[in-house]
């Protein structure tokens, strides 16, 4: 209670501010009245004042990305130590920002448990849809406890009679274990400048699982918008503690398929038909996904060799085990975004990595400077895009930001 009168500490604390005798409740989510506005309302007000909303919003996105990256190293370490599966890990952050007289944003604090109480029509209008979209992206799945007959009855009720459709959760889709070949590929590209044109050529089962989950999550964003990775967010790679394999892979994926996602989805579907995404390492020589690849030496100076499939009259026991289970219809990304935020000291000196050269040349890859930034820290737990949820904000210049 000794800090109760500290106005600076409680500047954005609604639980304290609402007790003031001067506090005015806002009963209309679209009105410029009271002490709490939606971002959409603020945007409307600022536009009338001649403010360039697109520039302001991009500066906010930039702040959010750098804020999350500042804690990425610690988050990755905690994720590796405490999580067995990506499925059960995601986080909703509340980020408090102060705009000064020049509309420059300043980070005040990051709340790991933002209030979801809805005590007014404004709260309901903002938080209700946000929670809906959040849970859709988290992708809760039916636990694998139903009898086969029960699953078949449910699938039949929905007109799904394909034997390869699995109704329940399949833990293989969220494994954090990498095979020897997958670790070799991670190590190889971590030390390679020219990854854009090569990294997607021979997708591993782990690559496919991450890409499937990311694309599936993207269909469920609602009023959120993915702010990392995009074709323009490679400029933030320098702020990571070390090069991250999944950052490179998703960067290459966005560069190639961001304007034609259906083509990328068809590629993933072709791999799923072959059940490649369900191939997981054989128990015994298991290794979890590396948090930092800087301490892994490449196993080969050449690109990852892809094992050739051998035709056998009688499939091996492992082959039968890998292919016996059915594929899953929906894939969701689970985002581990929790941990203690740190401070970015300096970017690592890797100019070649930042240029993302697709060919051995001195010419950086050109990207549109107007493409908005967004955030999914692929390696906090690899592969899940960070999303911003802005309350009914009209998108200034699509796709600068998803609207809420």
Structural write-up:
- The chain is mainly α.
- It has one domain.
- It is 33% helix and 7% strand.
- It has a two-stranded antiparallel ribbon. Strands 3-7 form a two-stranded parallel ribbon. A two-stranded antiparallel sheet has the order 4-6.
- α8 packs across α10.
- The longest helix is centred in the first third of the chain and has 18 residues.
- It is globular.
- The two termini are 36 Å apart.
- The C terminus is likely disordered.
- It comes from Diploptera punctata.
- GO terms for molecular function: ATP binding; tubulin binding; tubulin-glutamic acid ligase activity.
- This is Tubulin polyglutamylase TTLL4.
- One of its GO terms (cellular component) is ciliary basal body.
- It holds the Pfam family TTL.
* Strand order, sheet with most strands: 1-2
Helix and strand sequence: HHHHEEHHEEHHEHHEHEHE
| Shape category | globular
Number of domains: 1
Largest sheet: 2 strands, antiparallel
Unreliable spans: 290-315, 318-355, 357-385, 391-404
Distance separating the two termini: 36 Å
Structural class: mainly alpha
Arithmetic mean of pLDDT: 72
Number of helices: 12
Radius of gyration: 23 Å
Beta-strand fraction estimate: 5-15%
Helix content: 25-40%
Total number of beta strands: 8
Which SSEs are present, and which pair or pack?
Elements: H1 14-17, H2 39-48, H3 53-70, H4 72-82, E1 94-99, E2 105-111, H5 121-138, H6 148-157, E3 165-166, E4 177-178, H7 180-190, H8 205-218, E5 224-228, H9 245-257, H10 261-273, E6 287-288, H11 317-324, E7 327-328, H12 351-355, E8 386-389
Parallel strand pairs: 3-7
Antiparallel strand pairs: 1-2, 4-6, 5-8
Helix pairs in contact: 8-10
């Amino acid at each position: 209670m000794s800090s109760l009168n500290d106005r600076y500490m409680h500047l954005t604390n609604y639980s304290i501010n609402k007790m003031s005798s001067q506090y005015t409740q806002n009963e209309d989510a679209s009105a410029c009245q009271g002490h709490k506005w939606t971002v959409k309302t603020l945007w409307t007000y600022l536009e009338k004042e001649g403010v360039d909303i697109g520039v302001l919003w991009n500066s906010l996105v930039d702040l959010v990305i750098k804020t999350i990256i500042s804690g990425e190293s610690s988050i990755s370490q905690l994720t590796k130590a405490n999580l067995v599966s990506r499925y059960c890990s995601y986080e909703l952050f509340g980020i408090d920002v102060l705009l000064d007289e020049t509309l420059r944003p300043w980070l005040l604090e990051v709340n790991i448990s933002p209030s979801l109480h809805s005590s007014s029509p404004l709260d309901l209008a903002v938080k209700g849809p946000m929670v809906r979209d959040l849970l859709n992206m988290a992708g809760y799945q039916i636990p694998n406890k139903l009898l086969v007959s029960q699953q078949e009855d449910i699938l039949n009720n929905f007109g799904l009679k394909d034997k390869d459709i699995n109704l329940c959760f399949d833990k293989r889709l969220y494994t954090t274990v990498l095979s020897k070949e997958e670790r070799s590929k991670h190590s190889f590209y971590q030390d390679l400048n020219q990854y854009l044109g090569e990294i997607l050529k021979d997708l591993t089962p782990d690559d496919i699982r991450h890409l499937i989950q990311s694309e599936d999550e993207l269909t469920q964003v609602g009023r959120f918008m993915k702010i990392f990775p995009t074709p323009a967010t490679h400029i933030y790679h320098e702020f990571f503690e070390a090069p991250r394999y999944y950052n490179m892979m998703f960067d290459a994926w966005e560069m190639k398929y961001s304007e034609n996602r259906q083509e990328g989805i068809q590629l993933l579907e072709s791999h799923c038909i072959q059940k490649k995404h369900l191939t997981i390492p054989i128990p015994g020589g298991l290794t979890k996904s590396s948090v930092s690849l800087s301490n892994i030496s490449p196993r080969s100076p050449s690109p990852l060799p892809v094992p050739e499939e051998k035709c056998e009259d009688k499939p091996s026991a492992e082959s039968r085990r890998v292919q016996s289970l059915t594929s899953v219809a929906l894939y969701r990304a689970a985002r581990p975004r929790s941990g203690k935020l740190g401070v970015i000291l300096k970017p690592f000196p890797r100019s070649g990595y930042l240029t993302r050269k697709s060919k051995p040349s001195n010419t950086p890859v050109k990207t549109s400077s107007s493409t908005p930034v967004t955030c999914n820290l692929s390696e906090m737990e690899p592969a899940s895009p960070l999303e911003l949820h802005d309350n009914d904000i009209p998108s200034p210049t699509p796709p600068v930001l998803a609207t809420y």
